[in-house]
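User: Sequence recovery, please. Input:
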């Protein structure tokens, strides 16, 4: 009988670990083993974790200060006893059938190697609501169907072994590269929308900008995308703000600001608005969607440029990437 090891990493998130473990206790099937890697928490995260040991005798806590998410996940899997690995994050709230649904395809079909689930925003404010709708992968796109992410996934340990683990030199986009490498190794990856995890999005514009900047920076480090596209967008953003500032001295230039703004609205915000208007009838979407999509585009492209420069300047990134993908 195949067994399941559930892994997660945590750092200074006592509230997030409560949310996750309260949901684990309510799962329709229980993992045979739970491994949590703490990256050196200074708050009460460890005390909270230890309090769950009584109700979850299969829980193992590994303390590994100064480890990033990739290192923590690799450490957890290296210490796992089972062939099926399920992955989620502190702060997430898996549906009661999540573990059953995320692993079921792996039990039912030996040809399937990895499974992605569906992440649903768990929101408390209007900003979180629209941030969540704009922050999640679209699994209706074929490319996204063939990828799986650390917040809501399961895979066979053999995938991790063949790929060479999560890329430890990355602090963001590590799960994207892990999934991309698994895809290149011809592992069969499927999406199960019945495996549901609720996730609370960022609750401020600053946190949203930081999140997308780091996502972009991680992708820039693995050169996932076209730098020409990034430069195109940043040029347009620069023109917009140059026209805004110049307009204080020459007000006629604000006509250019309006035209550039409309152009960016048409390319950046309108496509998302068309989709969200079909599922959300609140008029506030007309304000929040343009605002968040603009911040997302600007932050992601600034992050991508930053990561790309690091990739070009520091040969170790290219060396590690080439070695990882050729593994």
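Assistant: Recovered sequence (327 residues):
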């Amino acid at each position: 009988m195949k067994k399941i090891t559930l892994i997660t990493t945590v750092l200074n998130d006592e509230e997030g670990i409560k949310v996750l473990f309260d949901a684990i206790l309510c799962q329709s099937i229980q993992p045979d083993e739970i491994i949590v890697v703490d990256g050196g928490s200074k708050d009460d995260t460890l005390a909270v974790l230890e309090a769950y040991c009584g109700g979850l005798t299969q829980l193992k806590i590994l303390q590994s200060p100064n480890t990033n998410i990739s290192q923590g996940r690799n450490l957890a899997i290296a210490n796992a006893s089972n062939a099926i690995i399920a992955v989620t994050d502190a702060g997430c709230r898996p549906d009661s059938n999540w573990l059953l649904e995320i692993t079921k395809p792996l039990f039912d079909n030996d040809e399937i190697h990895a499974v992605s689930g569906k992440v649903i925003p768990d929101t408390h404010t209007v900003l979180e609501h629209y941030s969540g709708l704009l922050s999640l992968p679209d699994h209706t796109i074929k490319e996204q169907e063939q990828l799986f992410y650390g917040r809501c996934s399961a895979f066979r340990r053999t995938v991790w072994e063949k790929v060479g683990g999560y890329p430890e030199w990355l602090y963001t986009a590590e799960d994207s590269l892990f999934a991309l490498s698994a895809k290149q190794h011809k592992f069969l990856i499927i999406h199960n929308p019945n495996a549901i995890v609720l996730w609370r999005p960022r609750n401020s514009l600053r946190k949203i900008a930081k999140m997308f900047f780091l996502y972009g920076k991680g992708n820039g480090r693995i050169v996932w995308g076209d730098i020409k596209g990034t430069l195109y967008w940043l040029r347009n953003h620069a023109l917009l703000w140059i026209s805004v500032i110049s307009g204080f001295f020459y007000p006629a230039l604000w006509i250019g600001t309006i035209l550039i703004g409309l152009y960016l609205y048409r390319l950046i915000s309108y496509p998302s608005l068309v989709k969200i208007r079909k599922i959300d009838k609140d008029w506030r979407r007309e304000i929040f969607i343009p605002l968040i999509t603009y911040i997302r585009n600007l932050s992601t492209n600034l992050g991508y440029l930053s990561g790309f420069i690091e990739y070009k300047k520091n040969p170790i990134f290219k060396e590690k990437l080439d070695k990882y993908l050729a593994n």
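The chain has two domains: 4-199, 205-325.
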